[in-house]
Design goal:
The protein has 144 residues and is mainly alpha-helical. Helix content is 58%, strand content 8%. The longest helix has 15 residues, at 129-143.
């Protein structure tokens, strides 16, 4: 779904984290994914946020990169990163937001969207029953 959203940029810290998550990440990295290098002053602010303990490296660099490239929005499921980015005026969406966007723009049909929500609810991403119910209600509105 992300590959259909336009240009997708990640900072080097996220790329490195992915290498730890998926052994073959360098060979499997999607062609549509752009790995960017932070430059001052954005690299400096990411370092300061990290040193202050406000964010982890991937989140700090992702927020700094969003500012650097003036991204339309930031994708993260990390609550602290979401709140921090919002205080900086960055529009933030999580996995559920991406699913709902894909459904609303016709990139997912209803069975596909419902299947993705079900998979997310069984994944390591914690979703409260209330939030999952709200997402399913949003799908109902999209497809009605």
């Amino acid at each position: 779904m992300l590959g259909q959203a336009g240009e997708i940029h990640v900072p080097q810290a996220v790329d490195v984290e992915m290498r730890f998550q998926a052994e073959k990440w360098p060979e499997q990295r999607p062609a549509w994914l752009i790995v960017d290098t932070l430059v001052p002053p954005h690299s400096t602010e990411a370092e300061l946020w990290l040193e202050a303990g406000l964010l982890h490296a991937g989140e700090a660099e992702a927020i700094a990169l969003a500012r650097q490239i003036r991204a339309d929005w930031l994708v993260t499921d990390d609550a602290a990163a979401r709140l921090f980015a919002q205080t900086l005026g960055i529009e933030v969406h999580g996995s559920l937001g991406i699913v709902l966007w894909a459904a609303a723009t016709g990139r997912l049909n209803r069975p596909e969207a419902e299947a993705v929500l079900d998979r997310l609810s069984r994944s390591s991403l914690w979703l409260s029953p209330r939030v999952l119910a709200e997402a399913k209600a949003a799908l109902e509105k999209i497809y009605s």
